Amino acid sequence: xxxxxxxxxxxxxxxxxxxxxxxxxxxxxxxxxxxxxxxxxxxxxxxxxxxxxxxxxxxxxxxxxxxxxxxxxxxxxxxxxxxxxxxxxxxxxxxxxxxxxxxxxxxxxxxxxxxxxxxxxxxxxxxxxxxxxxxxxxxxxxxxxxxxxxxxxxxxxxxxxxxxxxxxxxxxxxxxxxxxxxxxxxxxxxxxxxxxxxxxxxxxxxxxxxxxxxxxxxxxxxxxxxxxxxxxxxxxxxxxxxxxxxxxxxxxxxxxxxxxxxxxxxxxxxxxxx
Length: 274
Fold this sequence. Notes:
Layout: H1 5-19, H2 25-32, H3 37-44, H4 46-65, H5 73-82, H6 98-124, H7 131-152, H8 160-174, H9 177-197, H10 212-230, H11 236-272
């Protein structure tokens, strides 16, 4: 199937984004900071840090092994209608106008950005003490947002490989530029696995399609990036504002990554549809 001029331009933008370094205050810190762990240990102590690491691991494994997605298909169809995408079934999204889908997702991402900032501000009132709950809750919100974006572009977020791709997108949203480029390479590998399988893929509860070692490394890298965001929360005076900004930035970058990754896949798939 031929792609439109808008889709051609969108594909170029996605490829350009893939080569760009991250922007934003926390991203600059993440690019410059190699070992934030030692500093945080001095601020909150190794016991609290271990609790945080365990909480992140539990959250990620729960998201990966969840038996059903948290997206309501009927609500997505209603939202599609509200944005001029007149479909009866979600499978029709695969051939929809990309411009309409993009507009719907942009507004959806903005909604989550505002919600995450409010959540961060409230969480910031408790400083570093409640930071663990705040950031793990944010991971769940982030996962949910990306699921909806995947669904909107015609991909099943309950497929185990799609879940792996979603986790890599979360990593892009949380980490620095180096993590972004690494995650994009891993997404490319996952796309090849999906292409070869040619069907919906499943896995045992808590098992990564790339193996337990890869999942363990992922959790380690994600935790390290999240730890950088704990540092400013050790300062009660600025904790509320920093928490709001940090949460907003995570959702903003995750949303942008999901937007670019899935619209690129949408276009690539459309080119193959007879």
